[in-house]
Design brief:
The protein has about 900 residues and is mainly beta. Among the domains are: about 200 residues, no CATH class; about 180 residues, no CATH class; about 60 residues, no CATH class; about 180 residues, no CATH class. The chain has five helices and 63 strands. The strands form twelve sheets. Strands 29, 30, 33, 34, 35, 36, 37, 38, 39, 40 and 41 form an eleven-stranded antiparallel beta sheet that branches. Strands 42, 50, 51, 52, 54, 55, 57, 58, 59, 60 and 63 form an eleven-stranded parallel beta sheet that branches. Strand 33 and strand 34 form a beta hairpin. The protein is elongated. The protein starts with 5 loop residues before the first strand and ends in an 11-residue tail after the last helix. It comes from Candidatus Kerfeldbacteria bacterium RIFCSPHIGHO2_02_FULL_42_14. This is G8 domain-containing protein.
């Protein structure tokens, strides 16, 4: 169907009367109806008009004007093709003149889908009460408000739900006359000069429940100002002072309302971590009214949130008439949460209290109290404190309103609450909680497996196998399942796994990937051609098969694209990796635990070109106290070893613990008393020092020969000796680097060798104290592979004084031999970080001061030392004697 002409159904204009004072004027006629129905594609650039007629005007226009006619109705229903943009200028506006002005009509384009809900486009005005709401729910597929000057969500009856696959609001005004839930399966886009606002005098709560992304442009505005409790109503209502003092107190909510003259303040109420309430109204005076409180808004997004506009739920100011003054209304509620990340620029959130009135006559001290601030809650992977918001140029305000009493603070409303989340909650789970109670971690350095590739900054976070959590003492906590039921099930009858794990994190700088399907649809990228399975007859054999990130295959990407996770296979270095299952019985239920590594990368090998990287599975218990852990090596002490936690949450060492003194609250991962020996009385366990010529039970470091140049720039061993010069990245070049005096490093990258001749090992000698305020990491040069073990970056540090590790440091690498103390202070807010050292540390003493311990269900060491084997693989100059005594890594050990 093509429409290129004009279809007109407008009302006639009214006529005017004579010129005398009694002359009258006729009203305009209402617009009629235009309805077009076709299964065809609609095209054309025609005109559709159903405007109301203008009211007539008498000859003397100051005497009589006729009312304008209401706009009519235009409905186009079509079955195929896209929206006919050439017809989007259709009009059904009201005629002019008259008081009050008549209302606009409606213009709707609706695509009738046979098996899906209809698409709907609204270009001018529309009233949703013209559509039947089945069970108070409007159901569409795609909803587009484009340039609509007025769209009303009806106010009659129960709160409504608008259910749609997607929502676009572009340069449109939406007026809410009732509570509304926007239940959107995919994305929401609010752009241009769009305004979503509460109708005057209505108490409005609206919820955006969005399964996709939420985008809110810079000029967009959600305004629920004054959409809370009316004057003198609500749990924190301002006091009505009647005619005694002629004022009202400010309404309260997140903050106390201000005092009025002779009137008390409104109280606080509600939950700052889950703000849902309306702001309370301000108190009234003798003849004045208080301001209404702010409304309630919640936006809940399962993916990313991009915000640049203004969201406000301010309380309204109190009113006065020159003798009496009302109190201001309290600010309302804003709750914003996203499982993904926040972005945008200049976003603003306002939940301010309204000002108290002060319209009294000159020198009259009578005035209303200011409304208290409301409550704001912001949550996302990168939205967990004020600094996160500031980095996006954002601003959150929950200020109290100024009282009418001028400079007297007691008249002012108090500030409300602004809270950032400590964790991102999964909004819903896809099924049964399962019987695998285990955690995995994505982001551990690949050097754990002896691989040269290591990207410490790419950590993605925890993999949770179930909403159920295994607690210390062998009990199971199912509290989280009430919020989100999900999990992975191991079928011990057939050896198959099914269900979903959740990949997310509590770290501000890391994103949630989403659900991981343990039995994804094929085809699979390589053998074996099945989901995850295990050997039900021999649990010692590693798991086989594939898992995949659910959002990847749902997006339609082919099997060759990334998102696959392989449970076992070759590690690319001549060895193998894998995850093994352990069956335990807890409370009469068979439970599965996982240990080992899975790989997400190129489907056919372990080259880290695509995918998530290594996934480390290890048992976790529910603990709070801080603790220290070493992984993959031994612990030696010349005196006592004492842990802070009894019993220790995890083994302090993988293998041998040897001490000249007592060993308390510190255990080995190995069974048997031979692995934990105290009071051994070995004098050889003294730290290498000038007094013993830098020798102990592990070997000898001949420092004098190492630093003495005998041939040009080389020592007796042929190693280059040079002054330490900070450069990033630093290539060690098989050299000895000497730094005189105390040194401070704010971070350093040490790179691998780039060709077969480059030796990336080195020894750094500090003749003084060393302070580290930033991470020390190993790095590669692009995708250049390691051709020889000497290309593997490997650093040793010989420090004559103390080693101080600042509270902002999270990652260190190398073999540290410290002749003084290792000092690791604790300092908020950086104390919420753990420290990971990949290498080894020897020192005269240790001050482990960090208080970080993870969270219940996610225990993490405050300080963790991984013996990574680099000292063996590429021994730095002068340490070959020491390296001979170190343990050799031949398999994954946890």
């Amino acid at each position: 169907m093509s429409i290129d002409g004009t279809i007109l159904a407008s009302g006639k204009d009214g006529t005017g009367g004579g010129s005398d004072s009694n002359a009258s004027a006729g009203g305009g006629g209402a617009g009629g109806a235009i309805r077009i129905r076709t299964q065809d594609v609609v095209t054309g650039n025609g005109t559709l008009t159903a405007n109301g007629g203008n009211g007539g005007v008498a000859v003397n226009p100051n005497t009589q004007k006729g009312g304008g006619g209401a706009g009519g109705r235009i409905l186009m229903e079509f079955g195929n093709g896209e929206i006919p943009l050439g017809l989007k200028n259709a009009q059904a506006i009201a005629g002019q003149y008259g008081n009050p002005t008549s209302e606009h009509g409606t213009v709707v384009f609706r695509k009738k889908n046979t098996s899906l809900p209809d698409d709907i486009w609204i270009f001018t005005t529309f009233d949703f009460q013209d559509i039947e709401a089945l069970n108070d729910t409007y159901t569409f597929r795609n909803v587009i408000f484009d340039g609509a000057p007025w769209i009303r969500i009806e106010g009659a009856g129960n709160p409504k739900t608008l259910q749609a696959a997607s929502l676009t609001v572009n340069n449109s005004i939406v007026q809410l006359e009732n509570g509304l839930t926007w239940d959107i399966e995919n994305d929401v886009l609010v752009q241009g000069d769009s305004l979503i606002q509460a109708a005057a005098g209505k108490k409005i709560r609206t919820l955006f429940d969005v399964a996709g992304n939420f985008t809110f442009d810079a000029n967009a505005h959600i305004r629920l100002d004054g959409a809370g409790f009316p004057a003198a109503e609500g749990p924190g209502k301002g006091e009505n002072n009647g005619c005694a003092e002629q004022t009202g107190g400010g309404g309260g909510y997140g903050g106390l309302g201000g005092f009025g003259t002779g009137a008390t303040q409104g109280a606080t109420y509600g939950d700052p971590n889950n703000p849902q309430d309306f702001g309370s109204g301000g108190g009234e005076g003798c003849g004045s009214t208080g301001g209404t409180g702010g409304g309630s808004l919640e936006i809940k997004v399962e993916k990313d949130m991009q915000l640049s506009g203004l969201i406000s739920v301010n309380g309204n100011p109190g009113n006065g008439d020159g003798n009496e003054d009302g109190g201001g209304g309290a600010g309302g509620s804003i709750k914003m949460s996203a499982l993904g990340t926040w972005s945008g620029a200049g976003m603003k959130f306002q939940a301010n209290g309204g000002a108290g009135s002060n319209t009294s006559i000159t020198n009259d001290p009578v005035s209303g109290g200011g409304g208290g601030g409301g409550r704001i809650y912001l949550c996302g992977q990168n939205m967990k404190d004020a600094d996160n918001l500031a980095r996006l140029g954002g601003l959150a305000q929950a200020q109290g309103g100024l009282g009418g009493g001028g400079a007297e603070p007691r008249y002012n409303g108090a500030e409300g609450s602004i809270v950032w989340c400590t964790s991102v909650n999964i909004a819903a789970g896809p099924g049964d909680p399962g019987n695998i109670l285990e955690w995995g971690w994505i982001g551990s350095c690949i050097a754990d497996l002896g691989s040269p590739f290591c990207n410490l900054s790419g950590s993605l976070g925890w993999v949770s196998s179930s909403c159920r959590k295994l607690k210390e003492g062998g009990t199971i906590d199912e509290a989280n399942c009430a919020q989100a039921s999900y999990g992975v099930t191991a079928d011990f009858n057939n050896g198959e796994m099914s269900g979903f794990a959740w990949l997310g994190t509590q770290d501000n700088n890391r994103n949630a990937i989403g659900w991981i399907d343990l039995n994804p649809p094929g085809p699979y990228p390589a053998d074996p051609q099945h989901g995850v399975r295990f050997d039900k007859d021999n649990f010692a054999n590693p798991l086989t098969g594939w898992a995949r990130v659910k959002s990847i295959y749902e997006s339609g990407l082919p099997a060759t694209d990334w998102g696959w996770i392989k449970m076992s296979g070759p590690d690319g270095n001549g060895g193998t990796y894998g995850v093994v299952l352990e069956k335990v019985n807890i409370g009469g239920e068979d439970i599965a635990l996982l240990n080992g590594y899975a790989w997400s990368g190129n489907p056919n090998d372990s080259f880290p070109g695509v995918g998530l990287g290594w996934i480390s599975f290890q048992h976790a218990v529910n603990i709070i106290p801080a603790y220290i852990q070493t992984v993959g090596g031994d612990v030696f002490a010349g005196g006592n070893i004492r842990g802070s936690v009894n019993p220790p949450p995890e083994p302090g060492a993988t293998y041998l613990i040897l001490a000249n003194g007592n060993i308390v609250n510190f255990t080995s991962a190995q069974a048997g008393p031979e692995y934990v020996q105290e009071n051994v009385g070995l004098s050889e366990m003294n730290l290498p020092s000038p007094a013993n010529q830098y020798a102990n039970v592990l070997g000898k470091i001949d420092k004098q020969k190492i630093v003495t140049v005998v041939d040009g720039t080389k020592n007796v061993y042929g190693d280059i000796v040079q002054s330490f010069l900070v450069q990033d990245p630093l290539f060690l070049n098989g050299s000895v680097w000497v730094a005189e005096g105390d040194q401070t490093l704010n971070g350093l990258s040490i790179r691998n060798g780039a060709n077969a001749s480059e030796d990336a090992s080195g020894l750094i000698i500090v003749n003084g104290n060393l302070t580290l305020n930033g991470d020390i990491i190993y790095t590669s040069i692009g995708d250049i592979p390691i051709l020889h073990t000497q290309n593997l970056a490997s650093v040793a540090w010989l420090i004559e004084g103390n080693l101080t590790i600042g509270p902002a440091v999270e990652n260190l690498v190398g073999a540290f031999i410290v002749l003084g103390q290792v000092i690791i202070p604790d300092s908020a807010p950086e104390s919420e970080k753990s420290l990971t050292v990949r290498g080894l540390i020897m020192a005269q003493g240790y001050q482990f001061g960090r208080s970080f311990s993870g969270t219940p269900g996610n225990p993490q060491p405050s300080e963790q030392i991984f013996y990574d084997g680099r000292l063996l693989a590429n021994t730095p100059p002068g340490l070959s004697d020491f390296a001979l005594a170190l343990p050799k890594i031949e398999r994954i050990a946890r």
